[in-house]
Amino acid sequence: MQKTEKRVIPPHQVSHHLDRLAKPYLIWLYIFALFPAVIMIFLMFVDTEGIRFESMQASIENFQILTEKSTIIAFFNSLKYSFITTIICIFFGYLIAYSLYKSKIKNKYLILILLILPMWTNFLLRVNALASVFKPNNILTSIFGIEEGLNIIGTDLAIYLGIVFTYLPFMVMPIYTSLEKIDPLLHEAALDLGMTEFKKFWKVIVPLSLKGVVSGSIMVLLPCLSGFAIPKVLGDGNITLIGNIIEQSFMSMSYNQGSVLAIVILIIILGSILLVNKVDKEGSTLLWWKKLKILM
Predict the structure, then answer these.
(1) pLDDT tens-digit profile of 211-227?
(2) Complete DSSP assignment for 9-42
(3) Res 1: pLDDT
(4) Beta-bridge mates of residue 49
(5) Fewer CB in a 10 Å sphere around the end CB: N or C, the chain?
(6) CATH class of 81-295
């Protein structure tokens, strides 16, 4: 019998095939991401009524929305909720990731799947489900026979709980990934040098996992900064973030002013992505981000 030789495909042909497979994604990206961004940049510098271009005039008056009191308050609220939520997610995210890292569970990735399992459902469905739980009369009061529920809808607490519940996996994943990359021999070396468990954690584990903390912080901070669904539903319209201002601008057909705010947020996001690339040159953070955003 003659032995059949395995055909080895040259690397340049593999790269060529991958480029062909990526073309539909690039076309999708250009049509639904790049093209709308170009349109918004154009609308920033013109004055139109809706999308009517008959009376279009070049103007920079749209940038005045950045100095309006309502916009400044919305920016302040967005920064406040984003930073506080990020700090909360760092605490609980590191606690969860480190506990899982130190545990003796064989299939740890199964626990991670259970953590992101709620993200397999629709984002708005989850937010509305939380809103129903936060109201006085809900399904929990019926099941457990409680006379009155939490009744925190429309408060800061409801928004914080909703944001943390939604974006906590974005913090856990990169931290756990950075912990898993730590050489186990470093643990033994630290203990051999006379370090206590706390000193080993503080002087060895934490510094080596800071990359995951920074990456996770950016992954939590950005969607919190630009989101509008959670404050709209759980805040019951009482609290306005910059995402709500952008939504209201486009809903009222003030596309020019909405474009100004949207591009400002887009610049912040792109700058943060560049920061992630410098911190995480291997690209594991952006890979986790893409996976989690697909699930959302």
Answers:
(1) 888 888 888 988 888 88
(2) PPHHHHHHHHHHHHHHHHHHHIIIIIHHHHHHHH
(3) 46
(4) 52
(5) N
(6) mainly alpha
